[in-house]
Every structure is written in structure tokens, then in C-alpha cells.
Fold this protein.
Amino acid sequence: MENTITTNQPTTTADADFLPLMGTDYVEFYVGNAKQSAHFYKTAFGFQSLAYAGPETGLMDRVSYVIRQNKLTFVLTTALRADQEIAQHVSKHGDGVKVLALMVENATDAWQQTTKRGGKSYLEPKRLTDENGEVVMSGIHTYGETIHLFIERKNYKGIFMPGFRKIESVYNPASTGLLYVDHCVGNVGWNQMNLWVKFYEKVMGFKNILSFDDSDISTEYSALMSKVMSNGNGFVKFPINEPAEGKKKSQVEEYLDFYNGEGVQHVAIATADIVATVTDLKSRGVEFLKIPSSYYDDVLDRVGKIDEDLAPLSDLGILIDKDEEGYLLQIFSKPLQDRPTLFFEIIQRKGAKSFGKGNFKALFEALEREQDARGNL
Ligand code: FE2
């Protein structure tokens, strides 16, 4: 089934890119209790407090905590009132990703380019100012109730953006070596994958760089299909999954069931030393999917020589895969909240630009064991 992969690397010609993106600006989560979530992500993952907005800064219906580690910025937002959109979002979906914010040179142009191609506006270009300058933001809807915001901050010198004030925390856990967002994966409903592939192509100028069908990604019980969308310079990658028919309920169906619709399945975060990062995360209580030790019996026959010793990878349950350009090391956390919805991937790329297709079977069998334990298989 090797030939079911299609490779079509994005072009870097600037003239073709009507939506130049400089990367992920931040990921915003709507959560039930932002104060406690911020503490969890600081403690477990090694983030530092950066900024805060709430009643003390004039925001009467919500609070947001901004935490940061290297180039990774999370915003954790909670409603203060029951009859409020954020409260309804959390009631329906549980804790989850609301906003994938993208860094742009010109947020007004980003909004015009995407909405004229059929993107549904979420936020018309809005100028926020304070004594540190201005941020311009705009936004469009994507799958489910998820939003892409375009953030223009070239004329801003403040800590995060107008409306936020700096947090001086006495609690500053050390970094775990998490660097930046590598990719963010969306789960969409039955027969919706190609619709969203077209959305990213037409509205945002992305290209489909890899495709996996159910013959690549199936176990005895369940299946899914996936297409990886990338922007022109490859800084922003959004794989899109949809369920496929299998003997039992697939992991994507379980997600759609508990999230009450489409949404972000996982955020993949880069590290330069996955053994050190995962050792640290585990010591802080982060739980990962367990891979049977038999996976390591023949993994080097499949991927060839690697720089790392196999023993620590096997002890930690880190998976290995390769493509034409190199290899990658990856591991997947258990869900980060009580609903079996959002999880994180930790990834170290050693040349490989792919997403771990060779690990899908071992990974999905591990996921199914978890699903079975929840009674959802
Ligand atoms: Fe991934």
C-alpha cells in the first residue's frame, strides 16, 4: 500500500501565496477553569505565565491566562457568566481548542483574501491599541466551531496584546524543551474531509501534501482517512481526519461523539531532544499511550540506523518512522481532559517531513485499547 501516499511538496514562490503565514501565533483553549488549566500546563508541561485579561483589565465576562514556552503560546479562556458563548462552548464540547491563531504581516489583507474566496467571517479586521502600539486581528471560521484568527503584531512592543497585563508569577517551573507547534490536526465528520481540503486550498491557498486512505490507516477494528494540508512556506500544517468504515467505532467517531462535533484532535509540539522532554513530562505526571515492547523488536529493520539508543526510546514508548528525507521520533499523550477528545503529540524531526504513517497501526491499536477500556469501541 506504499503507493497510496501522494507527495506534493508546497511551492515557495511568493507570488502564488495570497495568504503568507509566518507561523502559529497562539492556540486558544476554551476551558472550564482557566486558572487551574494554566497551573496544569505550567506544572505538567513547563510553561511560564505571561499575561492576563479579566475584570481587572476591563473584560467583564471572561478571563484569559496567556502562558508561553519558547515559541509556543497558549491562551486559556473561561467564561465568568453562564449565559455566555464561552460557557456554552465548554458545556457542549468540554475543554478544547477554539482558536488556531496565525501570524501574518497584514491581518486586513488576510481577511479580505480569505473572505472573498468564500471564507465565512468571524471577526472583521479590528485594531487594538495601547501605549505599546497596535495589534490588528481578524478571523474566519473553519471546521466545527473552530476559528482561525489572523494576528498582525509588527507594530506592537507589549507583552502579548492590548487588553492584557503582564503576570509576575512566583511559580516558574522549568521548561520541558517544548519549542513550537509542528502541526494541528482536525477531526471532521463522515464525508467531510474533502470539503475541508477544498476549503484550505481555495480559501487559504494551502496544498494537500500527503494523503492516507483507510488501507493505510486501519486495524482489525477501525479506520480513518487523513489528508495533510500545508501553507506555501510549510510553516503551518493542518492534517484533516475523517472516520472510515471498520468493524467497530473508530477513534475519530469517539472524538466526534464526545466533542459533539468537529474540532481539533491533537496539537503536535516540536522538541529538539524527545528523550529528555518525555522523561521530564512523565516525571511531572503527563500520561502517554503505551506501545507494546514487541514494536521495538523490528523497528530498526524498518527505519534503518538512528542516532539514539533504542533502550530509552523503548522504555518511554517513543515511536520511530522515516521518509525519503530522514526520520522522526514521536509520542502521543492520553487525552488532556476527562472527555476522550484533545491530546498532544511530542515530535522530534531528524530530517523527515512526514507524519509517522509507519506508526499508525501500532498507535491505533494503542488508542483502541484505551477506547475499549472506556467502553467506546
Ligand atoms: Fe500528528
Q: What stands out?
A: The CA atoms of residues 187 and 341 lie 10 Å apart. The two ends are 26 Å apart (CA to CA).
